[in-house]
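Exercise: predict the structure of this protein bound to flavin-adenine dinucleotide.
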Amino acid sequence: MAHRFLARRIWTLSVTDVRCLPSSAVASSSRASFLAPSRTLAVSHAVRRAVSFNVQDNEDFTERVINSDLPVLVDFHAQWCGPCKILGPRLEKAVAKQKGRVAMAKVDIDDHTDLAIEYGVSAVPTVIAMRGGDIVDRFVGIKDDDQLDSFVCKVIGQ
Amino acid sequence: MPPIEKDTGKNELKTKIQKLIDSNQVVVFSKSYCPYCIQVKDLFKELKIEFNVMELDLMENGSNYQEMLLEMTGQRTVPQVFINKTHVGGCDKTMQAHKDGSLQQLLSGEKEVYDYDLIVIGGGSGGLACSKEAAMLGKKVMVLDYVVPTPTGTTWGLGGTCVNVGCIPKKLMHQTALLATAIQDARKFGWEFDESVKHNWDTMKTAVNSYIGSLNWGYRVALRDKNVDYVNAYAEFIEPHKIKATNKRGKETFHTAARFVLATGERPRYLGVPGDKEYCITSDDLFSLSYCPGKTLVIGASYVALECGGFLAGLGLDVTVMVRSILLRGFDQEMANRAGAHMETHGVKFIRKFVPTKIEQLEEGSPGRLKVTAKSTETDETIEDEYNTVLIAVGRNACTDKIGLDKAGVKVNPKNGKIPVNDEEQTNVPHIYAIGDILEEKWELTPVAIQAGKLLARRLYGGSTVKCDYIHVPTTVFTPLEYGACGLSEERATELYGPDNIEVYHSLFWPLEFTVPSRDNNQCYAKIICNKLDSDRVVGFHYLGPNAGEVTQGFGAAMKCGATKEHFDATIGIHPTCAEVFTTLEVSKRSGGDITQSGC
Ligand SMILES: Cc1cc2nc3c(=O)[nH]c(=O)nc-3n(C[C@H](O)[C@H](O)[C@H](O)COP(=O)(O)OP(=O)(O)OC[C@H]3O[C@@H](n4cnc5c(N)ncnc54)[C@H](O)[C@@H]3O)c2cc1C
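Solution:
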């Protein structure tokens, strides 16, 4: 277990690096790019961390959500879901307020059905809070700004 | 029946029964006088197989046994046969198992180990219902669903035809068209608004498809929640108990099961003339078309043709329907013609007795321009015209030709690709069943496929004996003026009972809500067909008017209960409605009495 944990840490680091690359340098965040030597350059850009990102595939989810050293809010949403379109931006705002203490991952359930099914999503929007690869909280449906703020605060342990 | 009082007694009894089942190769719960029980016991005697019999009628607490068996197996009746701990069922099931060889297999104790109890091929109306029901009854179930893209590249999600390219988008687009009529009527009721009322195809298309997206997701979740394994891959048999599944990336997996249900549905037929697959669309494309189709030629006179032509015209498009012979084959022809005539009075053009011979592209675009050449079915005459879109709706083909049925030994009707089954939806291969649109001479309707799928699962795994009843199925064609029907057409009733033995009562009617806008008088029509030899039982029900589905559903229930003309007459109407016309039908067709409604 300890070994796995360590491996995960290292992995996470390199992934974080990639995420911080200026968008021009990171050709659609392909896996190969963080193996490239340019990685070391990236560290200086750490401040430009994006608050939210779209999950690309299962691997991406493992790397950027499960192995994240920050707590992550996973917003399971769908194109056809009206309430999702309201919640998404609100959640993004609530996450932005935390100035990098929490990340937000967006999962389109039609593009990544297996993930949504695996995480027990039945209705959308469903938001799952993950820390250290564990689900620590979740809610379904819409919430107002204040409710979202307190949800986010709880997740980051304030 | 003495209730089983204490839980402890109940549990003891259960343990006792379970012990009997576990410690004997064959156990028959029986009643000494029951002929079916005797038949089963005789079978085992004949096979020279030792069996343990419990004659419930000769035992003091036999009825408690029977109650407990019901709880354990879902079956109340005797005989109940258990072989090597497996519940075979009653007499029919035992005889069937003897016939198909599964009895010997059970007896020999060497149960083949399959990956699944049941694999369902096709995740549409029937397949989903069947797989969920079987899983709820504790079976290990897999369902495979895969949509082969149309020639123009359209595909869709889980749920089959009805949800994605059938009932649901069709009805929503029909509703869109009805709203246009409502907007026109509104002025007559005093609503005042600016002239410009326009329709935006993209808004409608997006809204409809969003709703479908939510349904696709709902189906997916239901499969997870009911523990059905779902695979998005194309299935074909490679052995009688084994299928190959190929996903969209071409990856193959293999799965085995004790039983299979085929629920692959149908896809639109093409014409087989130059240009059809290249330039024409079908209902599989229409509902998600990214552009408004413009001036449209609908080829065919199926209900799909009339419904699609109807709502496109209702959106204000220039629509022509090209018909080879009759409208709505199989439906009551008087009703079909009235529905068609109403469309004609509302601007839909009909070209009758012509068939297309080629379709050429004049200009690419969204939509482009197409030239259609057609020839008369009676003379040498040919005609040509230009359209933006050509929609083919000349019928549907069963998806049974590319699923390896030859490898499984399943017989298919070579003429139409349909699968013949017995009254339990079983094919000629005993462990393979078929439901839904691919069945021969059965209604091609979603609720029918669902009912058949559910009941099949309950018979296979729940000890039920209830079969799907394909008689008195109510249905509605959503033409601009809707047509609801249940039971026999006038033609079919005449053929079955003879013209002298039926009485047809009918009436035209004018819906109250049509009076103020002063439209469509003498177009709505009600008709029932009664069997004179059977107390004037209503054997055919036909309604052409607004809300036909809502009107017809309840009468369907009445007909299931065997309603007669007298029952209809004795029913008090709801006033003012359209449906109330059926409680006051007085004029028989034979009498030739006047049925027109005079205006004010
Ligand atoms: C335009 C239109 C309008 C309709 N309107 C109505 C209506 O108003 N009311 C009504 O009751 N009925 C309506 N129907 C009919 C209704 O849609 C069908 O009766 C119903 O869908 C039949 O269900 P099914 O389970 O037999 O097949 P389907 O629902 O067609 O499902 C079959 C599924 O199996 C999949 N499949 C096929 N082969 C394979 C394979 N080898 N491997 C994996 N998957 C496979 C197909 O892609 C499909 O998803 C309409 C149909 C059409 C076309």
